[in-house]
Specification:
Layout: H1 2-16, H2 19-27, H3 31-53, H4 62-75, H5 83-95, H6 100-129, H7 131-134, H8 142-161, H9 163-188, H10 191-218, H11 225-239, H12 250-261, H13 266-282, H14 285-297
Length: about 300
Amino acid sequence: MILALAGAFYVLLPQLAGVDKSFKALGSANWAWLLVAVAMSALIDVASAIRIGGAVPLHLPLFATVKAQLAASFVNRVTPANVGGMALNVRFLRKAGVAPAEAVTAVGLNSLAGGIVHLLLLVVFLAWAGRGGGSAFALPSSSKLLVVIAVVLAVAGAVAATRLGRRFIRTRVVAYARQSLSSMSRLTRSPLKLAMLFGGSAAVYLAYVGALAAAVAALHGKVAFAQVGAVFLGGSLIAAAAPTPGGLGALEAALVAGFTGVGMAPDVALAVVLSYRLVTYWLPILPGWLSLHDLERTNLL
């Protein structure tokens, strides 16, 4: 955690150089729009609860599931790559009566559906934003991408060549893929569950985009909604590789770079991103902690 936070601070250093101008921009903020951002942030956990409910055959109580998502967001503040939230959701599903294999598979399907929807929405928002959205990020050259793909394939081949690697692929990867396909086939026979899974995933990302758009409006960023969506979805995709909890540091840097790429002033961009992260990352910590202890007290975790 110390190394991860140190890395996050290092990534943020170039943006923090003009933080004094950003505080001046915050002084002229429209606080009504910041309240809209808070409301959008609250919708994220509701949409997450709907999404996880669509990945299991049982009916989950909505209020308890929303509290579980709040608790998962709190746990994710101290664990990288959302692994803490995944483990908490598996535990919550087990307590709700879901079988162990189905609980693990449901959390995996939850992530899979989120990834599919993320990529689809990124394509939609980039096309909607046009040339302005595409200029927000400088993508690696094709030669660099080919090198990365070659390295990944070489590592995968080396792992598969060992006895331990083959055993892992056979007992873990293949078994998990079969469970996922079986669960997905059951979902295709239930249009309601399918709509909850993918509709909830779309609602999660749109709520994030809505919160960021509200922060842009609050700070008079003068960026179109389509560009906001393209910046968020592209930036969060880049920050997903960061080892810090919630992409701390990496996401802020990616969003600031994206907004400046579409023409927003750097000081306003930093003020927008800091306001957005305050609303969606830091403020939910206390409700998440309270939800975690309440779920433990009522034996739902």
